[in-house]
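Lab channel / #folding
Pinned by the channel admin:
"Please post every new chain as: sequence first, then the structure tokens as a reply. Keep commentary short and put observations after the output so the thread stays searchable."

First post following the new format, from NK:
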Amino acid sequence: MTKSLKIIEVKSEIGAGTRGASLGVDAIKIAALDFGSRFFKKHKSIEVPNENHLLLESTGSPYAKRISGILTMVERVSEEVKNTLGNNEFPIVLAGDHSTAAGTISGIKAAYPKSRLGVIWIDAHADMHSPYTTPSGNMHGMPLAMVLDEDNTDSKVNKLDQETINYWYQLKNVENIAPKINYRDLVLISARDMEKPEEHLIKKNKVKNITTAEFRKRGVERTVIETMMYLDHCDLIYVSFDVDSLDPTASRGTGTPVAQGLTEKEAGGLMTRLITHHKVCCFEIVEVNPTLDKENQMAEHAFEILIKATNAFRNE
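Reply from TO:
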């Protein structure tokens, strides 16, 4: 039985350091209209309420900015993803900043608590900081640490107050499951901008990171086969695509662009092959920021990747 797609819109940007990612979902919808596509009319969609009003208030802890709002968002996204999977639908999550991906992973684990979950993280960054190691306090750099139940106290540089410690503990324990994934079940693709604490974790836990150069050398087909073989022991796989994995020459429309990324064509080919794999249960696109863009280019790239991937999914 083919599952129907359900779009989960998360217009949250409280985890980012730059403003504008909450507008990414609507920018992708505008790109769809410009392409004359009925994609958003055709598929069921739901919007998760956001906490962006917190942007007008104090950030709270400098090492975990707006952490109370992040916890609320992670719980809401988790609930929505869990319900979507429970209805035998395939969630396509379109989100603002990447922090809420911890909610997506939590929701998958809550829906399938006995299943081993693999994660393919296509991103310029490793997003493994904790409040103890973060240089910025922006929580979109922390979603993998949340689901790995990782403090990385070996690399500790920040001293946290008790309230932050409590919120961080709650974030790691959303759905009362911690850790939600293991390092062995994680593959990074195109990660190229890491700080020392993250490099320490990647080395210590032997995390598989396929660099842009390695990806080019192997090509889409071989990269996908190798990734799926590496995650063969997992029951389910979630794919998270941060548009900053794309090279900035394609578009600057994301908060933290980094050189030497993927082309739109490479990313599209990669997504199309991944989404058709029978173990992939959820797909996410994050961090489109039209305020940093010209002529909505990044949203157009994101929409083209989304269309390629979902067409492949339907034609399986």
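NK: Residues 4-314 form a domain with the Arginase; Chain A fold (CATH 3.40.800.10).
TO: also worth noting, The first helix runs from residue 24 to 34.
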